[in-house]
Amino acid sequence: MVVNNSTDRTEEFARQFADDESTPNTVVLNLENNPHKKAGALNHGLQWLRESVGGRLPNKVRHVLVMDADTELHPKFIERARNVLASDPELGGVSAACLGRTGLWRNPWQRFLLGMQIIEYGRAANVRYRQDVHTMSGAGSFYRSEALQGLLDWRGQVFWEDHRNLVEDYETTLALKESGWKITANQLCIAYTDLMPTLRELIQQRERWSRGTVDTLRRRGWTKFTWHSISTMILGLVGSAYILGWGSTQLARTALRGFSHYPLFSVLLLGFWVVYPALRVRNLGWKAMLVEALLLPELVYTVVRTHWLVSSIVKSYVTRVSAWK
């Protein structure tokens, strides 16, 4: 456990947790002056682990679990992740399927904001194991030690230590792919993570993720490992423009005139956009399906999503990433 640049009582609470008799053997490392954000903290922990096993991870370590402090793993996460890696020796890591914690709202706006994040996480978790994995999740990632040692041998560090690296998990995912390893995700390897309770915090978090991704893609360029992410981002912008333009227009026309003025094709198209989003979140239950079928909540959230995506792209081109002090 790495306490990273903490100015509060985090180290004290961490040591209390480690000293508890019911806690598995836990070592608390305190990193007081770390200029390299989370990447520096993770590398510090890996350095301690390497030294404790004689310098090379595969000597005595088969797997390495990385998780955030605001994350709770499913009780069978490690067992399931080990089984996934055992199924294919070319797999360098398996990422968690992240789900948002529920029941944290205090008012109707927070209920909407957190509810839409829960739907967003659930929809992403349902897709990640079926398609190419964009990134190993920082909330919960299970690595093969040989893969991490390969990165150490290649470039001297697993997580790139640079103040411009805002998404250490994504950059490391690309590095693993570039060094010949495959990456996957599994819908049964679940990590429950905290959500952003306010609009300001949500936008700050997503701008950091999106801006970091754009920065990394700009440095890497178009490759066989980045084309999918670049294409997805472009399609996301196009999709948002379509939803905001067509969706808001149709909702306004329906509110004013009802359905009688619609031709059959438009009615069928509107029906598709009611049913399809609902079916994509059926694993979250009927409430999530109802929210998606109503269209308006998703339309409002799309405005927020478009804002942070466009803002991130603009900032990537016109501003610098400040060092973490």
Structural account:
Keywords: Glycosyltransferase, Membrane, Transferase, Transmembrane, Transmembrane helix. InterPro entries: Nucleotide-diphossugar_trans. Belongs to the glycosyltransferase 2 family. Helix 1 links the parallel strand 1 and strand 2. The longest helix has 31 residues. This protein is an alpha/beta fold and 325 residues long. Strands 3-6-5-7-4 form a 5-stranded mixed β-sheet. Strands 1-2 form a two-stranded parallel ribbon. The protein has a single domain, classed as Spore Coat Polysaccharide Biosynthesis Protein SpsA, Chain A, CATH 3.90.550. 55% of the residues lie in helices and 13% in strands.
Q: What's the helix and strand layout?
A:
Elements: E1 2-4, H1 10-19, E2 29-31, H2 37-52, E3 63-67, E4 71-73, H3 77-86, E5 91-100, H4 108-128, E6 140-144, H5 145-155, H6 168-178, E7 182-193, H7 199-220, H8 227-257, H9 264-280, H10 286-293, H11 296-318
Parallel strand pairs: 1-2, 5-7
Antiparallel strand pairs: 3-6, 4-7, 5-6
Helix pairs in contact: 7-11, 8-11, 9-10
Transmembrane segments: 225-247, 259-279
Pfam families: Glyco_tranf_2_3
Family: Belongs to the glycosyltransferase 2 family.
